[in-house]
Write a structure and sequence with these properties.
Blueprint (H helix, E strand, L loop, with lengths): L1 H26 L2 E7 L6 H13 L5 H9 L5 H14 L3 H17 L2 E8 L11 H13 L5 E3 L27 E11 L4 H13 L5 E7 L7 H14 L3 E5 L5 H10 L3 E4 L5 H10 L3 E3 L1 H6 L11 H6 L4 E3 L11 H12 L3 H10 L8 H22 L6
Parallel strand pairs: 1-2, 2-4, 3-4, 4-5, 5-6, 6-7, 7-8, 8-9
Helix pairs in contact: 1-13, 2-3, 5-6, 7-8
The protein binds N-(3-methylbut-2-en-1-yl)adenosine 5'-(dihydrogen phosphate) and zinc ion.
Length: about 400
Amino acid sequence: MQGAAAMDTDMERKVAAEKEMREWCVALPKVELHAHLNGSVRNSTLLELAKQLGDKGVIVFEDVKDVIMKDGRSLPECFKLFDLFHILTTDHDTVTRIAKEVLEDFAAENVVYLEIRTTPKNNEAKGMTKRSYMNAVIKGLKAVDVVDVVLFDSDSRTNDTLNCNPTIELDGDTKKKRIYVRLLLSIDRRETTSAALDTVNLALEMKDQGVIGIDLSGNPVVGEWETYLPALQHAKELGIPITIHCGEVANRKEIQAMLDFCPQRLGHVCCLNDAEWKKLKSSMIPVEICLTSNVMTGGAPSLELHHFADLYNAKHPLSLCTDDCGLFSTSLSNEYYLVAATFGLSKPELFQLAQEAVQFIFADENVKKSLKEVFKHAEKRLTMLSEIGVPN
Ligand SMILES: CC(C)=CCNc1ncnc2c1ncn2[C@@H]1O[C@H](COP(=O)(O)O)[C@@H](O)[C@H]1O
Ligand SMILES: [Zn+2]
């Protein structure tokens, strides 16, 4: 009996420790560098949109409901689901709503800098152009009022570091939290060279409206590197920072070409062979790590065997990201928690990991300076919260 009581206490202690760690990960200020807008939609919103389209007879709601609620999907199933998302999100007002909600969700868990990426979409039937799609996204971001949203490099609040708000409120601090947001325009691997070039030119046109970089994404078994290369090269010549989804599948020729291209950041890097791994490490290209996404889509065999550990131990520049927090039912706080629970990182190490991501953002030096202040404030507060003794 005594043994059972001890076990109960052990179990209670474990549950309490997990809860405390999870709360700490939420309180930690975080930088999100790899999040797809339509992959971050709340399930409740998707279901609501599906219901509306079902009522109009555009789709069969019951079929869609099963797909949305299904756990554990293969890579092709995920991309089928994205096609469904695109049917659900084809009008401007819906895009605006989604952008607003996604930003609110990231802000709610103390993301202090967010690079949200999305594929600008043409949809003639709905009167949507890539430009009007992006305008709808920006409208949604600007509509957020629960936090102070800073979207432009020219925003004078960027320099106002004295007023940068701490991200947790321990002592009745009622000031609004602040979040810096920037947009990356994604080139979908299904696109032609000309469509990809349009996206790069749009990024240039919208650079004063929060658009800061280019991403290459989409189904990794579709398309050829040579198709996107002219557009990526054009972006490079224009000085637009680039991040590329790399090595989601073992396409040797493409991985090699991507590493040779030397973008500012790489996402995933799952299926690299020894030589490519060596090349990546010597390149020091920062990597966007998406633990849950990689495990759920088979890019990594398990959390324990995820290549995060290798890169982290090699002190390779990296940042934890969600990829598609709606699709994979995760959050950035959860990704930090998983790193602690799986690889045994301490709170000071998690803090350092979050703080170091500031170096890899695409926004300018002023934003970096402000974010460094945010982390300085947070360090004090988090230390008060749990006496973590964060390293200098
Ligand atoms: C689903 C899956 C295999 C996730 C792994 N990670 C991904 N790999 C490549 N492209 C992606 C991934 N997640 C999202 N995307 C891209 O982002 C789009 C959704 O966001 P948006 O419509 O661009 O706003 C998808 O249609 C796809 O083109
Ligand atoms: Zn991605």
